[in-house]
Amino acid sequence: MDKITLTIAKREHAGNKNRFLRRDGVTPCHIYGNNVESEAIQADTAALEKVISTAGGTRLVALETKSKKPRMVFIREIQRTPVGSNLLHVDFYQVKMTEKITAKVPLHLTGEAPALKTKGRLLVHPLRHIDIESLPADIPASISVDISILSTLNDAIHVSDLKLDSAVTLLTDPDALVAKIGETSVKAEVEETVAEAETGVPSEDGSEESGGDS
C-alpha cells in the first residue's frame, strides 16, 4: 500500500483571519494526540482534498515539513461549509507507532448473493463498521465481506465470520449481525401491487368505477 503524505506548515493566523487562508487555497488544520501538544497548522486545500479522498479515517498520513521528522496521523474530523461542501477545517490525531489504538473500520460488501435472485428477497445490512484495536500500521482501510455465500432465506454473516489479521483485536460483539437474507413484508408487497394496478374502485355490482369524469 502506497504511503500517503501531506506537506504542512505552521499556521500563524487564527480566528477570523483564517478566511484569508481559505481564499488563497489554504485550509487551517490542527494536530493533537495523547501526550502531544496541540498545534495549529495549514495545508494546501487541493492536496488536502486528495489525501482525504485516499486516506479516509483509517489510513495513516505522514505530515511532512521541511525541518521536522514526518508526523504520523489519522484524519479525525473534517468541517465543511453547508453549501458547496468546501473545506473549513481538518483535525489530525497524531499516534505513536509502537502504541495500540482503537479504530472504527468500515465494512465493504463484495460479490453477489445468489439468494437475491429469488423474488421477495432482500439483503439486511445493519452493521456498517466494526471496532478494533491494533498498532497504527496494522489498521486495515476496510474489511471485505463476501456475500456470495448467502444462498437461501435467513442465511447470515456475523462479525465472528469476518477474516481479521492476527495483529488486530476485535472489540465489536462477535455475535453482531453483519448481513442477512430477509424477505419483503406482506404489507410492502400489497402496497407495491396496488401501486402497479390501474386506478379504480369496485362498485356495488362488482364492476370498477373510474376515479375520473367520463
Short description:
This protein has three helices and 15 strands. With 214 residues, the chain is mainly beta.
**Overall mean pLDDT:** 88
Residue windows where pLDDT falls under 50 for at least 5 positions: 198-211
What is the approximate shape? Answer: elongated
Q: Which architecture of the largest domain does the CATH hierarchy give at level 2?
A: Beta Complex
How many individual β-strands? 15
Helix/strand order: EHEEHEEEEEEEEEEHEE
What helical percentage do the residues reach?
10-25%
Name of the CATH first level of the largest domain: Mainly Beta
- Give the biggest sheet: 6 strands, mixed, barrel
- Beta-strand percentage range: 35-45%
The secondary-structure class comes to mainly beta
Strand order of the largest sheet: 1-3-2-6-5-4
If you had to describe this structure to a student in words, what would you say it looks like?
By secondary structure, the chain is mainly beta. The protein has helices at residues 18-23, 45-55, 186-196; strands at residues 5-10, 26-33, 36-44, 61-64, 71-80, 87-94, 101-110, 121-124, 129-134, 143-146, 156-158, 169-170, 177-183, 201-202, 208-209.
What are the key terms here?
mainly beta, RNA Polymerase Alpha Subunit, Chain A, domain 2, 6-stranded mixed β-barrel, 4-stranded mixed beta sheet, 3 helices, 40% strand
